[in-house]
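Retro notes - structure team

What went well: the batch runner handled both jobs without manual restarts.
What didn't: labels got mixed up in the shared folder, which is why I'm recording both outputs here explicitly, each with its sequence directly above its C-alpha cells.

Job 1
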Amino acid sequence: MTTALPLPLLSVRGLSKSFVHRNWCGRVIRHIPAVADVGFDVARGRTLGLVGESGCGKSTTGRLVLRLIEADAGDVRFDGVDIRAAAPARMRTLRRDMQLIFQDPYSSLNPRLTIGGLIEEGLIVHGVRNRGEREDRVAAVLRRVGIRPEYMGRYPNEFSGGQRQRIGIARALVLRPRLIVADEPVSALDVSVQAQVLNLLAEIQEEFGLTAVFIAHDMAVVEHVSEEIAVMYRGRIVERGRTEEVIADPLHPYTRALLDSVPSLRPRAPRRARPARDDTDGERGGGGCPFRARCDLRMPICRMVPPNTEVRPGRVVACHLHQGQAG
C-alpha cells in the first residue's frame, strides 16, 4: 500500500493576468500580459525562489497568490483552500496566515504612524481587542527582529533602511502567519545590510516553521535562501527545480544568462555563457518562445511556444532543446 504524499501548503496552476492599456479618453488600446500560465508548488516549511529580471512578472505573481489583485485565470490553493473562490469573510480569515514583506522599506511604512502603531494595526484589524496583549505581541516581535521595544513610539523616518525593513518583517510576523511572500526584501539595501536581513529571515523561518516565496532578481541571493528555484521570463516560468541542480546545471538559455550575470570575485574566471542580447526584437516579435529574440541557440521551431517538459522528477524546463527528454 502506497502512502499519499502530503499536500503542499501553496499550489498554483495556470495563473494568468493581463493589464489593460487605455488611451487618454479611456478606450482600451490593448491588453498587456503580465503573467501567463504560471504554476508551482511550495512544500510546508520550504522556500521557493522566484527569480528573473525587472518586469518579468515576479511581483505580480506574488500579489496574485495573495489575492491582492485578481487573476484572470488559474487556480491558487492555500492548504487545500481555493483562494480565488473564497468568500470575503473566508478570505479575511485566510489573510492572517498569508503575509507580504514589501520591497521598499521607505514607501511601505506610513510616516504618520509610529512603528508600534504600524505593527499593531494588523492585530486590530484581525480582532485582537486586548490592548495589553497587542502591546506585548508588538514588543516581542520587535525584539525578535532586533529592534528595541522602547522604540515603538518612534516614527519610520527615525530609522535606517535596514531597520525599516526589520520593522516591515515584524509587521508581517506579528499575526503569526504560515506563508510569507517576500517581494525583493533586500534589493533596496546596502550589501552588508542585505546579509543581515537575509540571515534574520532564515532564522525566523526555521524558528516559526514558515513557508516562503522569495522574489528576487539576484540569482546569488536566491541561491542563499531557497531550496527550489523558479526562473521567470516575460510572465512565464521557463525553468524550475531544486536550487543546487538549477545552479550547477542550468537547462534554459535564459537561466544560464542570469547565472553568468552574477559578478565573480575572480575577474579572470571563465564565463559560462555569452550575455543575452537586448530584447528590442522580442518586444515586436509576437508569439513563440518569449526568449527567442535573445537566444543564440534559437531554431525554426522556436516560433512555437515551448511546452513545459519534466526532464526528471521535479526538474521542469520550457525549451524546445529539451523536448523528448522527459524522465
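Job 2
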Amino acid sequence: MLTWIIIILIVLWLLGYFGPNVFSGFPKTGNVVHTLLVIALILIVLRVLGIV
C-alpha cells in the first residue's frame, strides 16, 4: 500500500513539474509540486530504513 502511495505521489509530482511545459492546458501547481516531492521523499526514506 505504501509503495502505491509513493508511486502516485511521484507521478503527480512529475505531472505538476513537467505538465505545463508539455501540455499547454495543464494548470501550474506551484508549491503543491514541492510539497508532493517532499512527502514522497520522506516516505521513500522511511521505507528504506524499515520504519514504515
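One thing worth noting from job 2: The chain has a mean pLDDT of 76.
We'll revisit the folder naming next retro.
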